[in-house]
Amino acid sequence: MTNQNIKKLVTAALLAAMTCVATMILKIPTPTFGYIHPGDGFVLLCGVVLGPLPGALAAGIGSMFSDIFSGYVTWAPATFIIKALTGGIAGLLFHRFKNTLHSKKGRYAALAIGGIVGEAIMVIGYFLYETGLAALGSGALNQASIAAGIASSATGIPFNIVQGVVGIILSLILLPVLSKIPDVRDWIER
């Protein structure tokens, strides 16, 4: 393994840990028994800094561990998939558009575009998972239980949107800070 690969692996582990801690440390409870947290900012940065696939893994792993450590074990598998998709898609779109938009401001626009799409995936993913949980929790998987699951799950959408917006803003604030690290700047600019 080369030094560059080791640096990227260590950075992935650090970003996963930062995602986990940022998700756990500051929780604003919602009436839907969830919480709003700044972890999504790091989920997006995982994809931007590491690239789509390694970023997806770091985002998913860090977010999944925050659920496990916080007592939301039922949500951990879904969180892994949803946050991996969020970070991976955000990273993919960022790297696709950052050079198309030509300029330093283009990076921010690319991050905003990737963040919006990635966070939309997060909102839809949790809505679908919660709908399924609610329908299965009723004891019968039928049209009425699915309708009830949709109705109860829809109440979480605005809070997940707020969480996504907070994540996008945080990632836009932290991008220039992380860009000062030479290796990270190289990975972002490639």
Give an overview in words:
This protein has helices at residues 3-25, 39-50, 52-70, 76-97, 104-137, 143-154, 157-178, 182-189, and strands spanning 28-29, 35-36. The chain has 190 residues and is mainly alpha-helical. A two-stranded antiparallel ribbon has the order 1-2. Strand 1 (28-29) and strand 2 (35-36) form a beta hairpin. Helix 4 runs antiparallel to helix 5 (104-137) and helix 5 (104-137) crosses helix 6 (143-154). It is elongated, with a radius of gyration of 17 Å.
For the structure shown, list the relevant keywords.
190 residues; mainly alpha; 8 helices; 80% helix; 2% strand
Oligomer: single chain
Biggest sheet, spatial arrangement of strands: 1-2
Mean pLDDT: 93
User: What proportion of the residues form beta strands (DSSP E)?
Assistant: under 5%
Count of strand segments: 2
- What is the rounded distance between the termini? 20 Å
Q: Give the helices and strands as they follow along the chain.
A: HEEHHHHHHH
List the helices and strands and how they pair.
Blueprint: H1 3-25, E1 28-29, E2 35-36, H2 39-50, H3 52-70, H4 76-97, H5 104-137, H6 143-154, H7 157-178, H8 182-189
Antiparallel strand pairs: 1-2
Short synopsis of the structure:
By secondary structure, the chain is mostly helical.
